[in-house]
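Appendix B. Raw example, untouched.
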Amino acid sequence: VIKPIFDSTTSVVKPFFDGMNNMIASQLRTIAQMVEGRGQIGLKRQVFFAQHLGYDTHAQQPGVHAQLLAELAAAMKAFVDAMAAIGMGDKVTTFTISDFGRTFKPAAS
């Protein structure tokens, strides 16, 4: 059921992610394709989880975080635009959450 969705040459959502070669973009493209193929899957409600790793940088935070946040922003924009293109923009909820910073006392670095 799922293989034809991923193999589709007429996917509307795939082009939104062109040129993005990172983990979060790949995951969001996969999720977008699953939403696009919802009719073939036959499910009324789907829940997906994606993760973006690498934020635990300690001493190299400014440069690495800027890159990670740029990747996340571009991938999320592509996803939102893809959902709008297939008429699902007002039917899909996205959000981000982080579990880092578990204490009030900052780390030494």
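End of appendix B.
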